[in-house]
Amino acid sequence: MRIILASQGFTTDEIEKEVSKIVGKPANEIDIAIINEAIYGISGDKSKRWLINELSNIEKHIGGKIDFVNFRVYSKEEIENRLLKADLIYLVGGKQFEYSKLFNETDTAKIIKDIAHKKVIMGTSAGAIVLGTQIQSKEFWNNRYNIEFEDIKYSELNLVSFNIIPHYLREDHKQWTRDFLNETLENNPFPVYAIQDTQAIAYIDGKIKYIGGKPDIFGKL
Asked: Which DSSP state fits 201?
């Protein structure tokens, strides 16, 4: 499997270069299928300008065909066909748990898991988190999201045996410091990579590669 967990997508030329290597095509020839339903969980009083910026970076760095695959509109067959035609499956970020809820309610988790063995999948923020393993720390969920671990209804896809903290140390995420993550993720049974918006973690056939520099790592290695 070839899975890329990013914080904010194609924010640097290095990310473009590394994704091109992983896909096995020049960036200007990569066809991309975008899944973006997680944005609909964000409240209306929050600006979506970040989404325009992220999609603009895709257009800037990826030169092939761009498709949007709507999991609540298309049939399972249509979803699978559209994903198989792309070189890169791209899950835009958004509201936490919206993707796991989406795949559960549309019974399409198996499609994503099957596609992961055939195509490169890249997620950003919430779109990356859903590809990983559910963080186990009760303190993390309670202190960061004000929810109890036992109340989480939907599980991540568990395509890789780790996960990420996106937007690490960004101005609007500064409250989630190294000390906070050290404390709340100390006993998490697998590694959690805290990455900034210029970074990504690539999983390539069982091997981990850091893109944009080595991240801070929390939990058990």
From this structure: E
Distance CA 71, CA 13 (A): 30
Query: By residue range, what is the domain housing residue 172?
Result: 2-218
Question: What is the rounded CA–CA span in Å between residue 112 and residue 155?
Answer: 14
C-alpha distances (whole Å) from 68 to each of 60, 71, 141, 157 are 17, 10, 31, 21
Assign 3-state DSSP to the chain and report helix, strand, coil percentages, each to 5: 35, 20, 45
User: How far is Cα 37 from Cα 39, in angstroms, rounded to an integer?
Assistant: 5
CB 63 within 8 A of CB 120: no
Per the structure, the count of domains in the chain is 1
CATH code, domain with 23? 3.40.50.880
Query: What CA–CA distance (Å, rounded) separates 115 from 1?
Result: 9
Q: How many CB atoms lie within 10 A of CB 156?
A: 19
Among residues 108, 190, 120, the alpha carbon closest in space to that of 157 is found at 108
Say how far apart CA 95 and CA 99 lie, in whole Å. Answer: 8
Encode the chain (221 residues) as per-residue pLDDT tens digits. Answer: 999 999 999 999 999 999 999 999 999 999 999 999 888 878 888 888 999 999 999 999 999 999 999 999 999 999 999 999 999 999 999 888 899 999 999 999 999 999 999 999 999 999 999 999 999 999 999 988 888 988 898 889 999 999 999 999 998 888 889 999 999 999 999 999 999 999 999 999 999 999 999 999 999 98
